[in-house]
Design brief:
The radius of gyration is 20 Å and the shape is globular. 37% of the residues lie in helices and 21% in strands. Helix 4 crosses helix 5, helix 4 runs parallel beside helix 6 and helix 10 crosses helix 11. The protein has twelve helices and ten strands. With 295 residues, the chain is of the alpha/beta class. The protein binds adenosine-5'-diphosphate (ADP) and magnesium ion. The site of magnesium ion (MG) has 2 residues, from helix 2.
Length: 295
């Protein structure tokens, strides 16, 4: 789907990679005797799209919740925009929250609020904003995510899955954040809606110069969007690198995830110069229902 915004940013360069906006250093997180993270390190720089992958229960959501300050580390430090989360005051924390947007997989929208009120909610939380200004802000965001303004008065139940994600994204960017967290933004969508959401994330990344932290199981989305992929395994970040480099790491999760048939098929979407850097095992034919091979 082409939108005015997509056309406008098509020829823009990707945002430049800048200073670290998230610095996780020597993080340990325990729940009772369950050690989820141990000596975990991860830096994310301005302008990047970093995808966090790992098996179920590897600690992806727990890591994101700690970065957002919703959960406290057992030890180690997390800095966001250069501020140590352990020592930052309540007012600075509130300001930092306004510089970040979030799209959670579950409970993405309030079912009892219209599309307009869902998108307006983070603005209203900040304080009183004149009605006409609020309307302009919300309508601009609807347009940015490619939804006609006639949808503003609808309830979430009347929307398709793809539209719900768009509204969730409009709400996540309503305060024009620098940093956007997306938890499974394409989960439950049909392939076409998935592609449209991936396209939209890429457009917003360019248009707003966003830094994006993405948690996803969707290999196609991961390959299409990531500047780097961070693999969570053995309680730490095993590697955080471009996907063609990650695919060559000798690790059971990496082999299964990236070099299985679905992984190999997804990696075919990389541009030739990046495909050339893939390990040989990733280049084996990816036959299957879509591959047209002998199976
Ligand atoms: N609030 C909590 N209390 C106790 N254990 C938790 C809590 N949140 C997560 N865990 C545990 O932490 C581990 C990692 O969970 P999670 O971060 O949700 O994994 P992922 O998102 O990678 O699937 C799991 O073993 C889970 O049971
Ligand atoms: Mg999770």
């Amino acid at each position: 789907m082409s939108t005015p915004l997509k056309e406008a940013v098509r020829d823009l360069p990707l945002p430049a990679i800048g200073e670290p906006v998230i610095e996780v250093h020597n993080l340990t997180k325990r729940y009772g005797r369950n050690i989820v993270h141990q000596h975990l390190n991860l830096d994310i720089r301005r302008g990047e799209i970093v995808t966090i992958v790992g098996g179920s229960g590897a600690g992806k959501t727990t890591l994101v919740r700690q970065i957002l300050g919703l959960e406290k580390p057992s030890s180690g430090s997390i800095r966001m925009f250069g501020e140590d989360l352990a020592t930052v005051g309540a007012e600075d924390m509130r300001l930092m929250r306004t510089r970040t947007g979030m799209l959670f997989q579950h409970g993405a929208l309030f079912s009892s609020l219209t599309v307009f009120d869902n998108i307006a909610q983070p603005v209203r939380e900040l304080g009183k904003v004149p009605a006409d200004l609020l309307r302009d802000i919300v309508m601009l965001k609807l347009e940015m995510v490619g939804l006609p303004c006639k949808h503003a008065s609808k309830m979430p139940a009347a929307l398709s899955g793809g539209m719900v994600k768009r509204v969730g994204l409009a709400r996540a960017i309503v305060l024009e954040p620098e940093l956007l967290f997306l938890d499974e933004p394409t989960a439950g969508l049909d392939p076409r809606s998935s592609d449209e959401v991936v396209d939209l994330i890429s457009t917003l990344h360019r248009a707003l110069g966003l830094t994006v932290v993405l948690v996803t199981h969707d290999l196609d989305a991961m390959v299409a969007l990531s500047t780097r992929v961070a693999v969570l395994a053995e309680r730490r970040v095993l590697i955080a690198a471009p996907v063609e480099e990650v695919a060559g790491v000798d690790d059971p999760f990496v082999r299964e995830y990236f070099l299985g048939m679905r992984g190999r098929r997804a990696l075919q979407a990389l541009p030739p110069e990046r495909r050339a850097k893939l390990p040989r095992a990733a280049l084996a034919p990816a036959f299957g229902s879509m591959g047209g091979g002998p199976c």
